[in-house]
């Protein structure tokens, strides 16, 4: 794929970029290693000052970078501004909390006395340069949720961003430099996917983090495994949204619409499969379909647009194939199911709700990356859990019930990295984020995320004689 900004609302190529050559990549690796050798020993207070400066700059740049994101991948301008604000918030959170999260831990001497230790300490030290392979759908947030903890831990970062968001990638490079981070601490590499293997195998790269497709995750994990390097993977999801009889149906349906079409439906943690108890199925479906059908599809730069275009022509084609396959096999489109007739350019697709889904349909097994929801009618809680878990993914889940026993059961039995009751899945810097099954492994955010790229060192002190 060419490294280029192509406006998905018009299909127009606005700017192209040359990929770095081998010599330029080598220069970046040298700078990253040199920066790490100095930066690793800086104080938390110094790192925090730099990251807080970056947050302030990002706030000042919010509208400009939001317009860049909207232009490059099609999210609404309102959503892009919110993404920039969330990134600044997360930078401040890690600047405030990193030192306590990575503080030395001292086991009770009585608990380790039989090891011969007078005392012992567990320390968290940075690993080195971390390669981040990031996707286009949240082009600022996906990077910051890696970069903020990694930099606060004393690591350096190399970013290989998606090829369709090069201007956002370069902005991040510039942002950290403007904030005063030493040269080489954070660098954007404008390279294609074919360059990733050699970079990851380089001994100056200590670890990797990837958010993206299962195919990309398998590739990076296998290379890193061969090199015995740490990885964190987030590989998408097909999140269930369960609605049970005690739910507030009006609130559940309103939230369901937002949960499905956030980021134009192109979110790993967007609810995609709506699993509804038969007692409330018809009432919920009526509200949900009405909400989806009422959404405004249009220019993502307009303030009143709810759903913009998909990020690429291929992405829309892939979504159409899933819908067409389902309809051909007996599913019903309760709304949508086509390209908007009044949008003749750009990669738009109508918000769509399908029911009558069966296991023979591709959409039952594959992630629908766009504003398409599938409805399932279930007879009881047992069937709801079975349908929810009938996927290779396990990123997050949503459940609407006010029954405490049902909540206990679902928190135990839903196979996912998160269970959100009576609300929609969202990431927050203070909560660990990641998945189970083929949604990946490892965690981002919170204390768990910042420790992923640290060397947990046991320091043992024997008696001095």
TrEMBL record:
SUPFAM superfamilies (alphabetical): ALDH-like
The protein, known as: NADP-dependent succinic semialdehyde dehydrogenase
Start and end residues of each Aldehyde dehydrogenase domain: 3-459
Family to which the UniProt record says this protein belongs: Belongs to the aldehyde dehydrogenase family.
Organism of provenance: Streptomyces piniterrae
Alphabetical list of NCBIfam families matching this protein: PRK09406.1
PANTHER family: SUCCINATE SEMIALDEHYDE DEHYDROGENASE [NAD(P)+] SAD
InterPro entries in the record: Ald_DH/histidinol_DH, Ald_DH_C, Ald_DH_CS_CYS, Ald_DH_N, Aldehyde_DH_dom, ALDH_GabD1-like, GABD/Sad-like
Keywords of this entry: NADP, Oxidoreductase
Organismal lineage: Bacteria, Bacillati, Actinomycetota, Actinomycetes, Kitasatosporales
Any one GO molecular-function label of the UniProt entry: succinate-semialdehyde dehydrogenase (NAD+) activity
Pfam family, any one: Aldedh
């Amino acid at each position: 794929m060419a490294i280029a900004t192509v406006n998905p609302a018009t299909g127009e190529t606005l700017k192209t970029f040359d990929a770095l050559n081998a010599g330029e990549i080598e220069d970046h690796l040298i700078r990253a290693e040199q920066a790490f050798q100095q930066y690793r020993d800086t104080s938390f207070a110094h790192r925090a000052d730099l990251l807080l400066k970056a947050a302030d700059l990002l706030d000042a740049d919010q509208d400009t970078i939001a317009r860049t994101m909207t232009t490059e991948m099609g999210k609404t301008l309102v959503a892009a501004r919110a993404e920039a604000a969330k990134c600044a918030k997360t930078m401040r959170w890690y600047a405030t909390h990193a030192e306590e999260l990575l503080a030395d831990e001292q086991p009770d001497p009585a608990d380790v006395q039989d090891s011969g230790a007078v005392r012992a300490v567990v320390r968290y030290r940075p690993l080195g340069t971390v390669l981040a392979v990031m996707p286009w759908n949240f082009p600022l947030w996906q990077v910051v949720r890696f970069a903020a903890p990694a930099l606060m831990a004393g690591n350096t970062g190399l970013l290989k961003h998606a090829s369709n968001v090069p201007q956002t990638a370069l902005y991040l490079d510039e942002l950290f430099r403007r904030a005063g981070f030493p040269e080489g601490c954070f660098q954007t590499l404008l390279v294609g996917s074919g360059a990733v293997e050699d970079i990851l195998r380089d001994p100056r790269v200590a670890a990797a983090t990837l958010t993206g497709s299962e195919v990309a995750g398998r590739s990076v994990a296998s290379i890193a495994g061969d090199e015995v390097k740490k990885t964190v993977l987030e590989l998408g999801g097909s999140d269930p949204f369960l609605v049970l009889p005690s739910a507030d149906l009006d609130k559940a349906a309103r939230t369901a619409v937002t949960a499905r079409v956030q980021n134009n439906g192109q979110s790993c943690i967007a609810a995609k499969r709506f699993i509804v108890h038969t007692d409330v199925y018809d009432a919920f479906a009526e509200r949900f379909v009405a909400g989806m059908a009422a959404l405004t599809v249009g220019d993502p730069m307009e303030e009143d647009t709810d759903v913009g275009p998909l990020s690429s022509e291929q992405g829309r084609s892939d979504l159409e194939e899933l819908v067409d396959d389902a309809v051909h096999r007996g599913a019903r489109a309760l709304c949508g199911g086509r390209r908007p007739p009044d949008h003749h350019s750009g990669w738009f697709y109508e918000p769509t709700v399908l029911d009558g889904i069966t296991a023979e349909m591709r959409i039952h097994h594959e992630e629908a990356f766009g504003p398409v929801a599938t409805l399932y009618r279930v007879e009881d809680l047992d069937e709801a859990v079975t349908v929810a878990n009938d996927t290779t993914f396990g990123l997050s889940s949503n459940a609407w019930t006010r029954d405490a026993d049902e909540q206990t059961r679902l928190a135990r039995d839903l196979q996912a990295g998160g269970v959100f009751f009576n609300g929609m899945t969202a990431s927050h810097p203070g909560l660990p984020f990641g998945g189970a099954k083929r949604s990946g492994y490892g965690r981002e955010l919170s204390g768990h995320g910042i420790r992923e790229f640290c060397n947990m060192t046991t320091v043992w002190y024997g008696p001095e004689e």
